[in-house]
Structure formats: structure tokens, C-alpha cells
């Protein structure tokens, strides 16, 4: 997706109607305004035709603060409000505990791998 190459905090890939969002690195190192700018750009992208579902791939995350989770949760909510499916995948044990403590699994499921998350949507596992 050439339109999303400018992002530094998030990696973005498209698998059919599923957008896979991968936070890159340590979320505590990013400034709030940079996070908000990227989150706004991603929300605009998620509104485009052909972007129906959102998978947040957490395999690179060790920690995130309240601003970071707030930005992700707002995107997950918007996708669900438009009738799409939203979910997490690939969280390590520490991130799983954080997500459980925040009760986020009651709202959005977690899958052990990206492939399992895509399979739950009936999507192929190679980017389009």
C-alpha cells in the first residue's frame, strides 16, 4: 500500500478486505502528536472501500501506554461500528496479560497467529 508508506509507528498490510496493523517497536518512544497523526491517517484509510476488517498484530509489542491503546481501540471500534470484524493477534505473554487486565478480549478476540486471525475471516494469508 503505497499510501501508507509514510507511517513510522504502524506497519500496514492488506489481505483482501482485511487490514493488518502492526505497531512497530516500543510504543513509549513515540510522541503523542505523532501517534495521533498516524492514527488519524489510519482511520481515514480504514474508511476506504475494500477495508472492512482490522487485525492488530502485536508480535513486535512489549508495552503500550494509555494513549497508544486508546488510538488502537478507537480504530477497532470504528471498524466494528461499520459492520466489520476486529481482532488482535500474536501477542506475547506480557501483552496478553495487559489486554486481559483491560478486559479487551470481551470486545475483540485474540488469535495466536496472524494466519489464524485471517482464517477466521476466510481470507488468504498473502498480501494483496
What does this structure look like?
- The chain has 128 residues and is an alpha/beta fold.
- It has one domain: STAS domain (Transcription Regulator spoIIAA), CATH 3.30.750.24.
- It has 4 helices and 5 strands, in the order ββαβαβαβα.
- Strands 1-2-3-4-5 form a 5-stranded mixed beta sheet.
- Helix 2 links the parallel strand 3 and strand 4.
- Helix 1 packs parallel to helix 2.
- The longest helix has 16 residues.
- It starts with 9 loop residues before the first strand and ends in a 7-residue tail after the last helix.
- The model has no long low-confidence stretch (mean pLDDT 86).
Using brief descriptors, characterize the structure shown.
Transcription Regulator spoIIAA; alpha/beta
In short:
The chain has 128 residues and is of the alpha/beta class.
Helix and strand topology:
Elements: E1 10-15, E2 18-23, H1 32-46, E3 53-57, H2 66-81, E4 86-89, H3 93-101, E5 110-111, H4 114-121
Parallel strand pairs: 2-3, 3-4, 4-5
Antiparallel strand pairs: 1-2
Poorly predicted runs are none
Number of structural domains? 1
Helix and strand sequence? EEHEHEHEH
Instruction: Indicate the CATH class.
Output: Alpha Beta
- Counting helices, strands and paired strands, the structural category is alpha/beta
Strand content: 15-25%
DSSP strand count: 5
User: What can be said about the biggest beta sheet?
Assistant: 5 strands, mixed
User: Tell me, what's the shape?
Assistant: globular
The CATH architecture would be 2-Layer Sandwich
The end-to-end distance, rounded to whole angstroms, is: 9 Å
Number of helices: 4
Amino acid at each position: 500500500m503505497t499510501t501508507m508508506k509514510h507511517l513510522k509507528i504502524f506497519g500496514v498490510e492488506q489481505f483482501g478486505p482485511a487490514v493488518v496493523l502492526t505497531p512497530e517497536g516500543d510504543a513509549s518512544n513515540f510522541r503523542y502528536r505523532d501517534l495521533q497523526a498516524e492514527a488519524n491517517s489510519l482511520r481515514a484509510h480504514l474508511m476506504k472501500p475494500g477495508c472492512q476488517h482490522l487485525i492488530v498484530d502485536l508480535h513486535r509489542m512489549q508495552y503500550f501506554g494509555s494513549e497508544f491503546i486508546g488510538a488502537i481501540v478507537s480504530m477497532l471500534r470504528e471498524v466494528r461500528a461499520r459492520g466489520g470484524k476486529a481482532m488482535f493477534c500474536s501477542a506475547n505473554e506480557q501483552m496478553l496479560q495487559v489486554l486481559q487486565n483491560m478486559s479487551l478480549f470481551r470486545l475483540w478476540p485474540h488469535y495466536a497467529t496472524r494466519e489464524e486471525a485471517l482464517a477466521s475471516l476466510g481470507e488468504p494469508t498473502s498480501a494483496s
